[in-house]
Amino acid sequence: MAIIKKQRIEKLKNKASEMLSRSIDQHINLAVTGLSRSGKTAFITSLVNQLINEGNKSKLSFFDPVHQGNFIAAKRVPQKNYQVARFDYEGGITALTAKQPHWPEPTHGISELRLAIRYQPKSSLLRYATDMATLTVDITDYPGEWLLDLPMLKQTFEQWSDVTLALLKQAPRNSYAQEFLNKIADIDPFAPANEEQIAQLSAEYTQLLHQFRHELGLSVIQPGRFILPGELAGAPILEFFPYAGFDDIDLNRYQNADDTSFIGMLRARFIEYKESVVRKFYQKHFSRFDRQIVLADCLNPLNKGEESFADLELAISMILESYRYGQSGIFSRVFSPRIDKLLFAATKADHVTPEQHAPLVSLLNQLIHQSKHHISFEAIEIKTLAIASVKATSSGFIQHQGKKVPVIQGVTQQKFEQNDDAESSTNKQITLFPGAVPEKLPTQSYWQAQAFNFINFAPTQGLSKHECLPHVRMDQVLQFLLADKMI
Ligand SMILES: Nc1nc2c(ncn2[C@@H]2O[C@H](COP(=O)(O)OP(=O)(O)O)[C@@H](O)[C@H]2O)c(=O)[nH]1
Ligand SMILES: [Mg+2]
């Protein structure tokens, strides 16, 4: 009798602890964004790698769950959202740890990955009840360019055309755009639409956007899906462009023009893009996110020069619009977001010497906070950090003309790209001081001095899949984004 009673009590106890542990299991939807090449793929690959290999040559001293010993283990588990591509962790880590290490291939859309993190609750109440709880983290990688589209929701086709053409006519874009501008000036707006011609001109406009991004190093690319189409590549919804002649046409006639006219077709596609691409992204994805990290490569624009940097400033202010909640009716109707933590990270900090990290953070702060006066962030905790997801350089000092000069050392990427021969392309190390990062938004004198020399490095050789990748401040990233859910 006593045995049966004891068994029953045990059973009840187990059940209670199971229920309790279920109720303390936590879940985070973590979104990772940034403009193309800002380092999203490298970041997520490193974040997953740091967590699943925890304990193996790990340097996560600022991540409390690890530092204080209540982190147990993390593993990848199948994602719940079947309609979004899986983030290719395996591909990323294989590239970084290959015999000839290289950076993962660029991606063009949205992807997801789910992690389950086991930990031992340490908070006084829970620690007696259960030895183990689980934090599930759904990580979503999506292009920052998609956030640049948000302002379009407020615009009519006329307004969007005006804003877009104004940009195209200014330096530096005008140097590439003149021919396209001439062509669209010749369009007869009320003639029947010629789909081939619209496709051709849209392709030219898209080509311009690619050149702006990759040749001029510009950040404001709109519509964002044009260069990062995801699953929409080739669809007519990505075939439209601004119309240049609004000043000279009868606006009544424009309002009444139907969708089979040239201008009517451009307008119809613009509207459809706003509704079923932009709005849908905010409703379907953005509204689910709890926490967001925005990655920004500030170094490449510094290297490219004044116009590129000014464009980054504009892009960041546009991206921040997405976090301006509840202020203007349109945004709160589009989505009801619930992000409580927002981290801005200046990526690739291993491209500069360590004493430049503080100015880099201060520069990023300036970029963000100059537009803060008209943005209310009350409900969101914000942090800025300078990070390297995968540290590709080492730092030290050299003696130069009797002075101690800080330097970094790494293997240049160009060598790998130009040379397929494994033997001769290894160990092409260079040592340099890449330059000083300005603490404040750079002035004319900074640009005149052209003080910055940014070089792409290849990942370090000899990394292993089963060890933590070398990094800068990934532990502080984890601390900010996850630690409060693991107590
Ligand atoms: N040195 C260094 N380079 C990085 C780091 N993260 C990204 N990169 C470089 O930036 C490029 C773009 O990164 P990626 O993650 O593909 O950017 P994404 O387009 O935002 O996903 C890579 O190919 C690397 O050359 C980093 O932590 N350190
Ligand atoms: Mg990517």
The CATH homologous superfamily of the largest domain is called P-loop containing nucleotide triphosphate hydrolases
The stretches of 5 or more residues where confidence is low (pLDDT under 50) are 415-425
Distance between the termini: 41 Å
Strand residue content: 15-25%
* CATH-assigned fold name of the largest domain: Rossmann fold
The CATH architecture of the largest domain is: 3-Layer(aba) Sandwich
Secondary-structure element series: HEHHEEHEEHHHHHHEHHHEHEEEHHEHH
Helix content: 25-40%
Shape: globular
The assigned structural class equals alpha/beta
Note the total helix count.
18
The domain tally reads 3
CATH class bucket of the largest domain: Alpha Beta
Radius of gyration based on Cα positions? 26 Å
Biggest sheet descriptor: 8 strands, mixed
What are the distinct ligands in this entry?
A: guanosine-5'-diphosphate, magnesium ion
| Number of E strands | 11
- What is the oligomeric state here? single chain
Break the fold down into its secondary structure elements and pairings.
Layout: H1 2-24, E1 26-34, H2 40-52, H3 64-67, E2 71-77, E3 85-86, H4 89-96, E4 111-119, E5 133-141, H5 157-169, H6 174-185, H7 195-214, H8 224-227, H9 251-256, H10 262-284, E6 291-296, H11 299-304, H12 306-320, H13 329-334, E7 341-346, H14 357-369, E8 381-386, E9 393-400, E10 403-411, H15 413-418, H16 422-425, E11 429-432, H17 444-449, H18 474-481
Parallel strand pairs: 1-5, 1-6, 3-4, 6-7, 7-8
Antiparallel strand pairs: 2-4, 4-5, 9-10, 10-11
Helix pairs in contact: 2-4, 5-6, 6-7
Bound molecules: guanosine-5'-diphosphate and magnesium ion.
Pfam families: DUF463 (PF04317)
Protein name: YcjX family protein
InterPro entries: YcjX-like
